[in-house]
Structure formats: structure tokens, C-alpha cells
Amino acid sequence: MAVSESLSMTRRCFFTAAGLAVAAPAAVAAGGSSTETNDAPEAVVLSEGEAKVYLLVFHTGQEVMKGLHAFAKQHGLVAGQLTGIGAISHAVLGYFNPQKKAYERIRIPEQTEVLALTGNLALYDNEPFFHAHRALGLENGSARGGHLFEAYVRPTVELILTAFAHPVRRKIDAGTGLPLLAP
Question: Per CATH, which fold does 38-181 belong to?
């Protein structure tokens, strides 16, 4: 595969120097625009074996959690871990209130830096389920964080997803009402 001409020169150099190849998105290969908005990220397999490692790159306007779910379904993923960085235009985070047994939503409508994104993938009702947390850097240097519900990309979010073949499942915890990991 050739390095995609749709990537910036900096990214093409990074992938070339690392010995990686990046395929052009299907829309570009078919003569379409690389700026078409959908929630599926571009993906590159970085390693194969017992665990498969993907580099997922989201672009402006894409929603991260929807894109992760779509990617996991498309590739039949059943367990994994993820980490990432980037920048977003707005997000919805959450704080679990144990007295209410519910998440309180925290809306962050401004441009922020993704200082850290970490999470895991398991199956819940036989569907891929990502549990992710995010720390966001605001313009004044302060940070906000919490459980990630939504994140709209601007200009990029770059994630490493390590997928495992052995399924991990979630089940509802009677004490909290949350779908927790059930090893």
C-alpha cells in the first residue's frame, strides 16, 4: 500500500519513517472527497498476533464514541483497550453520582485539547461497548474530565486501539445499575 496523499506531509513522513503504510480512505480511492463526514475513523493495523493493534484517526466533525462503536462492529471486536490524544470542538462528559445511581452530564461547548483519553472495550448484550474517560485542556490551561459520552473532533483525534480475541463481557451490577466488567 502507498502512503495516502490525503495525509499531511508531516503525517506521511511519520508513517514512512516508521515503516508504516496508510491506505487512502475508500471515498478518496473511489474518486470522492477526503473531507466527507461520517463517524468511522481511518484505521491501520500496527501489529498482528494474539492482540491486534490499530491506529484510528478521526477528522473534523466526526463523533468519537459513535465511530468507535461502528469500527468495533465492522471488525467484530470483542475486547480491547484504547488510549489517545487530539482536539475537539465540544464534548459531553459525565460524573457518576452514586446517591442518584446516575451520570450527571457535563457539557463542554468550547474547543479543547484532549490531554488524555483512556478506556476499554467489552461486550454488553453482545454489542461492542466502550467505557472511556477523557481529560480535556481548556484555553486558560485548566482541565476538565470525566466519563466520555460524546466528543466532536476538530481537527483530529488519534487513538491506539489494542484488540484482543478473547471476549470480555459486561453485566448489570445490582448495586449501581451500571454495566460493569464481568471477568
Answer: 60s Ribosomal Protein L30; Chain: A; (3.30.1330)
